[in-house]
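Homework help board

Subject: predicted structure for assignment chain

Our instructor gave us this sequence and asked us to write out the predicted structure in token form, then describe one feature. I got the tokens but I'm not sure how to describe them. Can anyone check?
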Amino acid sequence: MNAHTPVFCTVVPPHVLDRLATAEDPALSGIARRTLVADAAQRTARRLTTVLGAPTAAPPAEAVEGRPHRTIYDAGHGTALPGRKVRGEGDKPVEDATVNRAYAGLGATFELYLKAYGRDSIDGAGMPLDASVHFDVGYDNAFWNGERMVFGDGDGQIFLDFTIPVDVIGHELTHGVTQHTANLTYFGQPGALNESMSDVFGSLIKQYALDQDAHQADWLIGQGLLAPAVTGTALRSMKAPGTAYDDDVLGKDPQPATMDHYITTGRDNGGVHLNSGIPNHAFYLVAQTLGGKAWERAGQIWYDVLTGGELGKQALFADFARLTVAAARARYGEGGELQAVLKAWSQVGVETG
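My token output:
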């Protein structure tokens, strides 16, 4: 773990919470501000871990290679982690649906990586998958803190329970995969690539769990997370970045789909949750062109780049694009896969060299 930089990654972008923090409804603004304060505390903890080194946890004696080892804890609406153990690997479902959804989501993530790519847990070496639910009061986020998944219950007015969308669980755990592989710096374009990898594989985990092909998938991140009163369908859209929501309280989805609308900003770690829409859209275009199960050919190319050892921590979009071209050629030759990759990056305005 000391060779990797664990970053604090949340599924709800800071710009969304910033907007909520200024809401006229004091209940909404208060919850958003509380969430922002809690997130700031977790970011500080991540920085300390970067300096001191994260604890190394070997798989427990009862863990079996190629099978998940999940433990779910209940934080009891507090902020002390992990909380009280409420379900372990192989235990029967409990009465708390949030616990059961977290358990199932960890399993769906483990299964996609193992069955599609031969990866044993997020570190490739059987790392236990831990999660804490019911974090804080009305907490409007879910995050990977370098060691575990943590889920808030949402405020009920804007966000619902964060264990509802399986792609949110897959998104956050994929930050762990990135942490243990390319370890992309969480700022600017490399940070946007970090976020995009989580959206890509979060969507693939959902598609795998539902047995959907590329044309059946909705390509939404966080569908089912927004409360009924919100005008929107999800947090982000890979199919059409910038269209996931347009709400009086949340504002309009600001994600760009192409480099023509790239956002230069010092906020959100240099726009990591914003400009991730560009590589997200490139992956969607590749998957749509190739058809079939997106985790097979399109996902395999992206996985090859993430884990291949050539993707630098400071990689820009063009660096990543060139590596996907090389990966497509290496695995599939000069056929349709390569042409789909080249065309997709061209459509979003990223040079492949």
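Reply (TA_rk): Your tokens look well-formed. For the description, you could write something like this. Residues 46-55 have pLDDT under 50 and may be disordered. That's the kind of observation they're looking for.
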